[in-house]
Design goal:
By secondary structure, the chain is an alpha/beta fold. 47% of the residues lie in helices and 13% in strands. The protein has a seven-stranded parallel sheet, with helices on both faces. The C terminus is likely disordered.
C-alpha cells in the first residue's frame, strides 16, 4: 500500500526555486507540512508565504547551518519524516578553464551539501526507527557529461555516497532514495545545449516523481522511467560504442551549443554570498 504523506513533515533544501519549489508545492498539495531552506532567506520567505510552507536560512555547505535548519524546523513543525536533499548548482564550461573557486563551489553545494544533510537526518531518524531521505541527483550522476565535468563528478559522488549509506541503513527503518532526472527547464539549465531525442522536463515532472517515491519508496528512480533501461544498457557496451552513442545523441555538443550569455545571470547569482541554487 502507498504511504499516507498527508500527516508528514517534509524538509527541502534549496526549496525556494525550480525543482525544490515544485517539490514543496506537490507535498503541500498532498497535505504534508513543509519546511524549505535557502541561503537567500528573504526570497525564500516570500515563496513560503505564497505556497504555504515555512522558510529557514540554510547554507548546505556548512554543517552547523544544516543542523540549525533541522532544529528550527523540528521545533516549529514537529519531527521531520522526509528530508529532501535538493540544493544544487551547476557552472558550465571547459574543465581546464574552470576556476578553483568554481570547482570548490560545485563540490561544496552538490556533494558536501548532500553529505551534510544526510549526516544531520540519519541520527534522529534512526533513533525513531523511521524516516526517508531523498537525494536529488541527476542523469549525469550515472553518465558524465562534457561541459559540466565537475557537476558530473559531484553527482557521481552522491550516487556512491548513497550506495554506501543505504547499506549501512539496512534494517534501521530509514529509507534512502535517489532521483535521477534528465535536464529540466530551470535556471540551472538556462542556455545549455540540448541533446538529440532528449526532452526537457519541467520541475513539476520531477517533483511528481519525488512525491511518488515518498509514497512508494524505491532506491533509484529515473525520470522519465524509460531512461533507466537505456542508461543501464549503455554500461554493457564497449567503450568505443558508448562514445559513438554519445556522439549520436549529441552529448558531445554541449560546449559548442550552450549560450553562455544566457547563463550569466544565473551563474552570477549562485556565486553570490546570499545565492541559492535553482535545483538539481
Amino acid at each position: 500500500m502507498p504511504r499516507d504523506i498527508s500527516n508528514k513533515t517534509v524538509a527541502i533544501t534549496g526549496g525556494s526555486r525550480g525543482i525544490g519549489r515544485a517539490t514543496a508545492e506537490q507535498f503541500i498539495a498532498a497535505g504534508a507540512t513543509v519546511a524549505i531552506g535557502a541561503r537567500n532567506h528573504d526570497y525564500a520567505a516570500k515563496v513560503a508565504a505564497d505556497i504555504g510552507a515555512r522558510a529557514y536560512p540554510l547554507d548546505v555547505t556548512d554543517p552547523v547551518s544544516v543542523q540549525a535548519f533541522w532544529n528550527a524546523a523540528e521545533a516549529d513543525l514537529g519531527a521531520i519524516d522526509i528530508f529532501v536533499n535538493n540544493a544544487g548548482e551547476m557552472i558550465v564550461g571547459p574543465f581546464e578553464k574552470e576556476s578553483a573557486e568554481d570547482t570548490a563551489h560545485q563540490l561544496g553545494v552538490n556533494l558536501l551539501g548532500t553529505l551534510n544533510g544526510m549526516k544531520t537526518a540519519i541520527g534522529p531518524m534512526r533513533r525513531r526507527g523511521h524516516g526517508h531521505i531523498i537525494n536529488m541527483v541527476s542523469a549525469v550522476g550515472m553518465i558524465g557529461l562534457p561541459g559540466c565535468a565537475t557537476y558530473s563528478a559531484a553527482k557521481h559522488g552522491v550516487v556512491g555516497l548513497s550506495e554506501g549509506v543505504r547499506a549501512e541503513l539496512r534494517g534501521s527503518g530509514v529509507d534512502l532514495s535517489i532521483i535521477l532526472p534528465i535536464p529540466a527547464q530551470t535556471e540551472l539549465t538556462s542556455g545549455v545545449g540540448k541533446g538529440r531525442f532528449v526532452p526537457l522536463l519541467t520541475p513539476d515532472d520531477i517533483a511528481k516523481s519525488v512525491l511518488r517515491t515518498a509514497r512508494r519508496p524505491v532506491y533509484n528512480r529515473y525520470v522519465p522511467g524509460w531512461t533507466n533501461p537505456v542508461t543501464r544498457s549503455l554500461f554493457l557496451l564497449p567503450q568505443p560504442w558508448r562514445d559513438a552513442m554519445g556522439r549520436f545523441l549529441k552529448a558531445d555538443q554541449l560546449l559548442r551549443t550552450t549560450d553562455y550569455q544566457a547563463r550569466i545571470a544565473y551563474e552570477t547569482r549562485v556565486k553570490a554570498p546570499t545565492a541559492e541554487g535553482a535545483g538539481a
